[in-house]
C-alpha cells in the first residue's frame, strides 16, 4: 500500500491534472462499412436520425458531458455533409468543447483514418476513440483513472476497452444488437484482455484457445456475454502503432487481435466494464432498432427524446412512453400506442393506429393506416389504408394508398411506393441503382471475414430460396403504379443473413430452427466428448481420425518396406543398409519394431514367392535362399517374443489371404525358421496359447503344425537326455 | 478572512463586490458613494486589498490600476471594479449557456443547489445588463425573463429554477416601486416621468405622492397577515423582506436622475444577494425550530435523504433531545442508507427499514418528518418517490406528517396546470441490472420485453400534510398560497415572454 499512499497524497492534484491536460477524442464519422446501404449512399451514417436526432449528436453530447474538451471528427464519405451539419449546429461554438473536422477522401478504413490523424500530430495525450454512431451515458472518470493508473505502472498498457454485460441469444449466436457472439478471455484480477474473437465458427461448436494463454495466466475468465461498446481509451502510442503496422485496417480484427497475438512488443489491452451506465454502437439495422428502443425506454437517460430535442421543439413524455412534440394534429379516432415518438408538425388521420414506432417531423399520415415498429423519418406522406410493419422509411418518401410494407423493408430517400403495391420483406428500395462494382475498399471490412458464418439452417431453407427468386422476379425499377425507385436485388450470401440484421424482429420459426439445430449439435457434441471441457474435444476427434489413418498408414508402410526390400534384392544392397532404410521408414511412419519385423518378413516371403518356382519344393528352396541371404535384416527386429509372435501371426495371415501358396508349407517353413533361430520356441508356444481360445477357423494352422509342436515339446527332454 | 474570501469570490464572478451578509452592506454602500465611509467599512476594504490585487494580477490588469488600489483611493477602486466588470461583459451569455447545459444534462441535482446557482446566474445577468435612463425596471425584467425562460425549459422538472426566476422578477418590481415611492416622497415631480413605463402600476401613481409612499409596499402584494403586522410595528426594520436596505439609500441618493438606473440595479443585486443568502442558510433557520417539534423519546420516521431533515434532526439532537429515527431506505436510489449512516455517525439511534416496511412500523412512530422537492400553491407536495405511501400510512394511523421546505421550494403554480411537469422518468438501470435482464430486453427475438418505469417524484395531496416548516416558521397547507403571494407577484407566473417584448 506504499505506492498508492504516495499517490494518495497527490490525489487532490490529480483531478486538476486531468482537467489541465485537455482530454481529446477522435470521433470516426464513417463506419467504413456498407451495412446501412442504400441509405448511406445519400447521407452519411452519423447523420441518420436516431429517435429524430442525428446519431452524431448523441456521441458529441456524451463526449461533452464526459469531460472531453477537444474532439476531432474524422469524416470520409460525404464529408461535406458532415461538415455542413456541424457548422450549422451549435457544436462548433461551445465554450469548453472544441470540435475540429478532419477530412479525407481516400481513407478506406479506421486504420487509414488513425494514420492520417497521427500525421497531423494533433493528439498529445490519452484520447477517447469512438465511432460517430455510439450512444452512451457512461461516466468516463473511473475508466480514465484506471487507464492512467495502469499506464503509470506499466507503459505497455496502451488501451482500455469499455465492455458491458449483455446476454447473447444462444440459439442464433447473436447479441441483441445484431452483432455476432463475441468471445473474450479476460484476466479477472488485472482485467487484461487476453483473447478476442467475434467471428467464431459455430458449426463446429468449438473454440480454440492458445495453450500459452492457459500456461501464462494464473486465472482467466472466458466470457461470451459481454458486449463490446466500441469506446476505447487509448494512449498516444496507439496511433503510432497503426502507423508502424500499415496493414492494420480494422480496429478490432486487426489492431486488437494483432496486439493480443504479438507478444514481442508486449502491448497490453485492458477492459473496463460498465454496469449501470449504457453504451452501445449502432452497427446494423438491428442495432438501430434496439438502440432506438433503449432510448425510448430511457436506458440512455439523460439522452432521451424529451431532453435531447430541447433545441428545436419541446417534446413531452406522456404515459406509456409516448413522446409527443409540439404542434401535432391528431385525429380523435387515431390511436397512438405505447413506446412511440412523434415529431413536431406531424398530422395523423382517422382510425390510424401507431405503436412502437418513431415518426419524424412534418409527416402526413392518412386514415386507416397501421404503423407498427417503424422508423419514419421527416416529411413523409403515408396515404390512406397503408400498412407499415417494421420498416425504415427515409426522408421524403411517399407511400400511396393501400400499399403494404412487409417487415424489414428499407425505403431510401424520396422513394415513391405505388398504390396497393406490396413491398416484399427485407427488400431495400432506393432511387439509385445498386453500385455495380462493389467497391472493394468499402467491402474491406467483410472481405476477409470467414464465410463460415453462414448458418447451415438457412442454406437448406426452401422458403428463403423462394423469396430470393420472388425478389428477383419483381420489377426492378417499378414499385407499382406511380412508384419511383429500384428494389435492390439481394446478392448471394447477403440474403440469408438478412433477417439477422434487419429492423424486423427475428421470425419465430428462425429461432425455433436455430434452437433445434443447436440442440442437435449439443447432442452430437455430447456424444463425441467425454470430458466436459471444450478444449479437449478436438483432440478426441483427432485420435479417432488417427485410428482410421493408421490403417492406411500400415498399408503404405508395408508397401514401402516391400519396395525397399525388392530394390535391395535387385541392386544387391548390403543388409546393414537395408536395415538403415527400414529404420528410417519405421521412424517416418511412427511404427513399432514388431511392425517392421512383420513387414520385413512379408517382403522376404513375397520375394521368395516372386522368384520363379515350379513346385512346393522349389518354393521352399527359394524361401531358404532368401532367408540365408537376408536373415540378418529380419533378426535385427526380433528382439523379443512379441516381435516373433508378430512374425508368426503375419505368416499365418499371409497363408490365409494373400499368398496361399505357402499354406501347405506352413509347418516346414516354421520349422526352418526355428532351426535358423529366427523364431524361438517360447514364441511358438505363446502363439499356440494365444490360439487356444480362438475359433476353429483360426486354429487351422495350429493343427497343421501340431506335429512340429509336439516334437518341439519333446525336444528339450531329448536335450536333457543327451 | 471571511470577508476577504467573499470579496475574492464576488470578483471572480465579475460582478460588483457585494457582501451577502447584512453587516457588510455598509461597506458596499461606501464603495458606491464616496461620502459615506464608516470605520468598519474602511477596515474591511483594506483587509480585502490583498485578494483584489491577486485577482488583478491574474487578470493582467494594468499596473496603473494596481497602483491606484495600493493608494487606496476608494474612487479608483470603484473604477477598477467597473473595468473588471466591463472586460468580462460577454461572459454572461456563456455563463447562461453553460448553466442551461448543465441543467439539461441533469448535472445539477437538488433544488437547493439549483436554486442557489440560478440566483447567482441571474445576479450576474442583472449586473451586466446595461440599463438605459428610462425603463430600467422593464429592461431588467425582460433580461431576467429571457434568461429565465431558457433556464426553465432546460429542466422543466426542477421547479426551483422557475421559483428563483420569479422571485428575482418580484424583487426587481419591488425595488423599483420602493425607489419610485421614495423619489415621489423626495421629489414629487420627477417621479411621474420616470415611471411611465411601468404600466401595471400606473394607477398607483395617480394617487397623491404621500399616500403612495406610505401604501406602496403594502399594495404591491396581497395584504398578508405577516406584512400587516410588520407594517404596523416597525416598517423600517423588517428582518426578511428584501427592500429594507434600499430605503435608507434611497434617501441619500434619490436626487440625481442618471444614477437612478445604477441605483436600481444596485438595490436589486443587494436583494438577490440576500436571496442567495436565504437559500444557503435555510437549513439553519428550519433547524432552529427543531426543538419545538421533536419531543423527548419520540420516534421519527423519514424516507430517503434530505439535507434539511438531517440538519433538523441533528439540531434537536444537539439540544439534548433523545429520540429514535426510523429511516426508510428510499428505493431505487437508496439515499436513505446515506442518511442512516450520517445520523448514526452523529450519534442518533437510527433504524433502517425498507420502504415496504413503512406500514408495519408506522404504528410506533410519533411523527413523520420528510423533505420535499417542491411545494405547489395548493399545498400539495412534490416529493421523492414513495412519500405518498408514507403519507397515506401516516394518515391511517393519525401520525403527523411534517414537510420541511426552504422558501425557494415554494412554487406559485398549481399542480393541475398542464405547463407544470411534475415528474421525471429516470434510467431503468437504477432498478435493475441491464446485463441480468438483457435477454428480456431483446426486442428482436420477441422474448417478451420488460418496460421498466422509474419515476423520480410522488405527488402528496395537501390533505395528507399536517404541517409545513419553512424558514419563516410552521404553516398549515391551506396557508401556503398566502405565503406564496408574499414571495411572487402575479404578473410573473408565466415567465414565457410575450411575443411583443421581443420587438
Structure description:
The complex is a heterodimer of chains A (722) and B (503). By secondary structure, chain A is an alpha/beta fold. Among the domains of chain A are: 265 residues, Alpha-Beta Complex (Spore Coat Polysaccharide Biosynthesis Protein SpsA, Chain A); 182 residues, Serine Threonine Protein Phosphatase 5, Tetratricopeptide repeat (Alpha Horseshoe), CATH 1.25.40. Helices cover 41% and strands 17% of the residues of chain A. Chain A contains 25 helices and 37 strands. In chain A, strands 17-18-21-24-27-30-33-36-37 form a 9-stranded mixed β-sheet. A 7-stranded mixed β-sheet of chain A has the order 5-4-1-6-14-8-15, sandwiched between helices. In chain A, strand 17 and strand 18 form a beta hairpin. The N terminus of chain A is likely disordered. Chain B folds into 3 domains: 88 residues, no CATH class; 208 residues, no CATH class; 183 residues, Translation initiation factor eif-2b, domain 2 (Rossmann fold), CATH 3.40.50. In chain B, the strands form 2 sheets. In chain B, strands 3-2-1-4-7-9-10 form a 7-stranded mixed β-sheet. Chain B has a 3-stranded antiparallel β-sheet with strand order 5-6-8, covered by helices on one side. The longest helix of chain B has 30 residues. The N terminus and C terminus of chain B are likely disordered. The radius of gyration of chain B is 25 Å and the shape is globular. Chain B is of the alpha/beta class and 503 residues long. Chain B is built from 23 helices and 10 strands. At the A-B interface, helix 3 and helix 10 of A face helix 6 and helix 21 of B.
Amino acid at each position: 500500500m506504499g505506492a498508492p499512499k504516495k499517490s494518495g497524497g497527490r490525489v487532490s492534484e490529480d483531478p486538476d491534472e486531468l482537467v489541465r491536460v485537455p482530454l481529446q477524442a477522435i470521433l470516426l464519422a464513417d463506419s467504413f462499412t456498407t451495412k446501412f446501404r442504400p441509405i448511406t449512399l445519400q447521407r452519411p451514417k452519423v447523420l441518420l436520425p436516431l429517435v429524430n436526432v442525428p446519431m452524431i449528436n448523441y456521441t458529441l453530447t456524451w463526449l461533452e458531458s464526459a469531460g472531453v474538451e477537444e474532439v476531432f471528427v474524422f469524416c470520409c464519405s460525404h464529408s461535406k455533409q458532415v461538415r455542413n451539419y456541424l457548422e450549422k449546429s451549435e457544436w462548433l461554438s461551445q465554450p469548453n468543447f472544441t470540435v475540429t473536422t478532419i477530412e479525407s477522401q481516400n481513407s478506406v478504413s479506421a486504420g487509414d483514418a488513425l494514420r492520417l490523424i497521427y500525421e497531423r500530430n494533433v493528439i498529445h495525450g490519452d484520447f477517447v476513440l469512438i465511432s460517430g454512431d455510439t450512444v452512451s451515458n457512461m461516466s468516463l472518470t473511473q475508466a480514465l483513472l484506471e487507464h492512467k493508473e495502469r499506464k503509470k505502472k506499466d507503459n505497455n498498457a496502451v488501451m482500455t476497452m469499455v465492455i458491458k454485460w449483455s446476454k447473447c441469444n444462444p440459439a442464433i449466436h447473436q447479441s441483441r444488437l445484431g452483432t455476432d457472439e463475441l468471445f473474450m478471455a479476460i484476466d479477472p484480477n488485472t482485467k487484461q484482455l487476453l483473447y478476442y474473437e467475434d467471428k467464431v465458427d459455430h458449426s463446429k461448436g468449438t473454440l480454440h484457445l492458445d495453450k500459452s494463454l492457459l500456461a501464462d495466466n494464473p486465472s482467466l475468465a472466458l466470457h461470451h456475454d459481454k458486449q463490446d461498446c466500441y469506446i476505447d481509451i487509448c494512449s498516444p502510442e496507439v496511433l503510432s502503432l497503426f502507423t508502424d503496422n500499415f496493414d492494420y485496417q480494422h480496429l478490432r480484427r486487426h489492431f486488437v487481435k494483432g496486439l493480443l497475438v504479438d507478444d514481442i512488443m508486449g502491448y497490453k489491452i485492458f477492459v473496463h466494464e460498465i454496469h449501470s451506465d449504457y453504451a452501445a454502437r449502432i452497427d446494423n439495422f438491428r442495432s438501430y432498432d434496439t438502440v432506438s428502443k433503449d432510448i425510448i425506454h430511457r436506458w440512455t437517460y439523460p439522452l432521451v427524446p424529451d431532453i435531447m430535442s430541447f433545441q428545436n421543439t419541446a417534446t413531452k413524455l406522456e404515459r406509456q412512453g409516448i413522446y409527443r412534440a409540439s404542434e401535432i394534429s391528431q385525429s380523435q379516432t387515431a390511436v397512438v400506442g405505447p413506446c412511440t415518438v412523434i415529431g413536431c408538425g406531424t398530422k395523423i388521420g382517422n382510425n390510424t393506429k401507431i405503436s412502437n414506432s418513431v415518426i419524424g417531423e412534418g409527416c402526413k399520415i392518412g386514415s386507416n393506416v397501421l404503423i407498427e415498429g417503424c422508423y419514419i423519418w421527416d416529411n413523409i406522406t403515408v396515404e390512406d389504408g397503408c400498412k407499415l410493419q417494421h420498416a425504415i422509411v427515409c426522408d421524403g418518401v411517399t407511400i400511396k394508398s393501400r400499399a403494404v410494407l412487409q417487415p424489414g423493408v428499407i425505403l431510401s430517400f424520396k422513394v415513391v411506393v405505388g398504390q396497393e403495391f406490396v413491398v416484399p420483406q427485407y427488400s431495400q428500395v432506393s432511387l439509385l441503382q445498386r453500385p455495380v462494382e462493389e467497391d472493394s475498399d468499402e467491402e474491406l471490412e467483410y472481405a476477409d471475414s470467414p464465410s463460415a458464418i453462414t448458418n447451415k439452417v438457412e442454406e437448406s431453407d426452401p422458403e428463403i430460396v423462394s423469396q430470393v427468386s420472388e425478389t428477383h422476379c419483381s420489377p426492378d425499377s417499378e414499385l407499382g403504379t406511380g412508384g419511383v425507385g429500384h428494389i435492390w436485388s439481394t446478392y448471394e450470401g447477403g440474403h440469408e443473413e438478412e433477417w439477422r440484421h434487419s429492423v424486423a424482429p427475428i421470425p419465430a420459426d428462425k429461432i425455433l430452427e436455430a434452437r433445434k439445430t443447436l440442440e442437435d449439435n449439443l447432442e452430437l457434441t455430447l456424444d463425441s466428448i467425454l470430458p466436459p471441457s471444450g478444449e479437449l474435444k478436438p483432440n478426441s476427434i483427432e485420435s479417432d481420425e488417427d485410428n482410421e489413418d493408421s490403417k492406411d498408414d500400415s498399408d503404405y508402410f508395408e508397401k514401402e518396406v516391400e519396395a525397399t526390400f525388392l530394390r535391395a534384392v535387385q541392386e544387391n544392397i548390403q543388409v546393414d543398409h537395408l536395415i538403415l532404410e527400414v529404420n528410417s521408414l519405421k521412424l517416418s511412419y511412427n511404427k513399432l519394431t514388431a511392425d517392421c519385423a512383420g513387414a520385413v518378413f512379408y517382403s522376404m516371403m513375397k520375394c521368395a514367392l516372386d522368384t520363379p518356382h515350379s513346385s512346393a519344393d522349389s518354393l521352399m528352396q527359394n524361401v531358404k535362399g532368401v532367408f540365408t541371404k537376408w536373415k540378418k535384416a529380419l533378426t535385427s527386429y526380433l528382439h523379443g517374443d512379441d516381435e516373433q509372435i508378430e512374425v508368426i501371426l503375419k505368416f499365418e495371415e499371409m497363408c490365409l489371404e494373400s499368398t496361399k501358396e505357402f499354406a501347405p508349407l506352413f509347418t516346414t517353413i516354421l520349422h526352418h525358421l526355428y532351426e535358423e533361430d529366427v523364431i524361438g520356441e517360447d514364441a511358438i508356444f505363446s502363439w499356440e496359447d494365444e490360439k487356444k481360445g480362438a475359433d476353429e477357423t483360426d486354429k487351422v494352422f495350429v493343427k497343421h503344425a501340431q506335429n512340429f509342436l509336439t516334437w518341439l515339446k519333446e525336444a528339450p527332454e531329448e536335450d536333457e537326455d543327451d | 478572512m471571511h470577508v476577504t474570501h467573499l470579496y475574492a469570490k464576488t470578483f471572480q464572478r465579475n460582478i460588483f463586490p457585494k457582501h451577502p451578509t447584512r453587516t457588510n452592506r455598509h461597506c458596499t454602500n461606501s464603495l458606491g458613494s464616496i461620502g459615506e465611509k464608516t470605520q468598519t467599512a474602511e477596515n474591511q476594504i483594506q483587509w480585502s486589498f490583498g485578494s483584489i490585487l491577486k485577482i488583478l494580477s491574474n487578470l493582467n490588469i494594468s499596473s496603473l490600476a494596481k497602483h491606484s488600489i495600493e493608494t487606496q483611493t476608494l474612487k479608483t477602486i470603484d473604477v477598477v471594479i467597473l473595468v473588471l466588470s466591463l472586460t468580462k461583459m460577454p461572459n454572461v451569455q456563456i455563463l447562461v449557456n453553460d448553466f442551461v447545459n448543465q441543467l439539461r444534462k441533469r448535472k445539477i441535482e437538488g433544488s437547493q443547489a439549483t436554486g442557489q446557482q440560478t440566483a447567482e446566474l441571474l445576479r450576474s445577468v442583472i449586473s451586466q445588463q446595461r440599463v438605459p435612463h428610462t425603463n430600467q425596471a422593464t429592461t431588467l425584467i425582460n433580461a431576467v425573463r429571457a434568461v429565465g425562460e431558457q433556464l426553465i425549459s432546460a429542466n422543466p422538472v426542477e421547479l426551483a429554477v422557475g421559483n428563483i426566476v420569479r422571485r428575482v422578477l418580484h424583487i426587481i418590481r419591488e425595488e423599483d416601486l420602493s425607489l419610485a415611492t421614495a423619489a415621489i416622497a423626495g421629489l414629487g415631480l420627477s417621479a411621474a416621468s420616470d415611471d411611465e413605463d411601468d404600466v401595471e402600476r400606473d394607477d398607483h401613481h395617480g394617487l397623491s405622492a404621500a399616500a403612495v409612499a406610505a401604501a406602496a409596499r403594502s399594495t404591491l402584494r396581497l395584504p398578508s397577515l405577516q406584512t400587516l403586522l410588520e407594517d404596523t410595528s416597525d416598517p423600517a426594520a423588517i428582518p426578511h423582506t428584501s427592500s429594507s436596505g434600499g430605503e435608507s439609500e434611497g434617501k441619500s441618493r434619490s436626487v440625481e436622475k442618471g444614477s437612478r438606473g445604477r441605483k436600481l440595479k444596485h438595490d436589486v443585486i443587494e436583494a438577490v444577494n440576500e436571496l442567495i443568502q436565504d437559500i444557503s442558510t435555510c437549513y439553519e433557520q428550519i433547524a432552529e425550530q427543531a426543538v419545538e417539534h421533536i419531543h423527548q423519546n419520540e420516534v421519527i420516521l423519514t424516507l430517503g435523504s434530505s439535507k434539511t431533515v438531517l440538519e433538523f434532526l441533528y439540531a434537536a439532537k444537539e439540544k439534548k433531545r433523545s429520540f429514535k429515527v426510523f429511516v426508510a431506505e428510499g428505493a431505487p436510489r437508496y439515499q436513505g442508507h446515506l442518511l442512516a449512516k450520517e445520523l448514526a455517525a452523529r450519534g442518533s439511534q437510527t433504524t433502517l427499514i425498507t420502504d415496504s416496511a413503512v406500514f408495519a412500523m408506522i404504528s410506533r412512530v410519533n411523527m413523520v418528518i420528510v423533505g420535499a422537492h417542491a411545494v405547489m400553491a395548493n399545498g400539495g407536495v412534490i416529493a421523492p418517490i414513495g412519500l405518498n405511501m408514507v403519507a397515506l400510512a401516516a394518515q391511517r394511523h393519525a401520525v403527523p406528517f411534517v414537510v420541511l421546505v426552504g422558501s425557494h421550494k415554494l412554487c406559485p403554480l398549481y399542480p393541475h396546470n398542464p405547463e407544470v411537469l411534475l415528474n421525471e422518468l429516470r434510467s431503468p438501470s437504477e432498478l435493475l441490472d441491464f446485463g441480468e435482464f438483457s435477454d428480456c430486453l431483446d426486442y428482436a427475438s420477441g422474448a417478451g420485453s420488460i418496460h421498466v418505469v422509474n419515476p423520480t417524484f410522488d405527488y402528496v395531496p395537501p390533505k395528507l400534510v399536517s404541517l409545513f416548516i419553512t424558514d419563516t416558521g410552521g404553516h398549515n397547507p391551506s396557508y401556503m398560497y398566502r405565503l406564496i403571494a408574499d414571495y411572487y407577484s402575479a404578473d410573473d407566473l408565466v415567465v414565457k415572454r410575450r411575443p411583443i417584448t421581443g420587438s
